[in-house]
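Course assignment 3, question 2. Fill in each field.
Student: A.L.
Task: Predict the tertiary structure for the chain below.
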Amino acid sequence: MKNITSIIVLSLTSILIGCDSPMPVNSTEAIVQPAVATGENTATLWVNGIGCPGCIPSVKEPMLKLNGVQAVSVELQTGVVTVTLNETNPATQDQLSGAIEDGGFTLTKIEMPQ
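Answer field:
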């Protein structure tokens, strides 16, 4: 029941505030955790501010513009962004963080492959 309630609240919030663009979350400081191995070519990012399906392109497009990124998936309910990196020339942690900020969102944690 809690998940259904969360989805309903999220949907109603998106409708009421017209979430068709990124909505930054006010925070005093984004906490970027040290790099931790997640997978051979996969970076995992936890992002605040993803509020509706309309936000997904605002997360994906800046990431996909990076040379070292092959694919991006966004989990709307959790705010987890999974990035498949190029094996030979992967995007850096700073590049990924910058792309999230360029989209208008707040990065709270990132795990990079070693």
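Instructor remarks: The beta strands are 42-48, 69-75, 80-85, 106-111. The chain has one domain: 2-111.
Grade: pending
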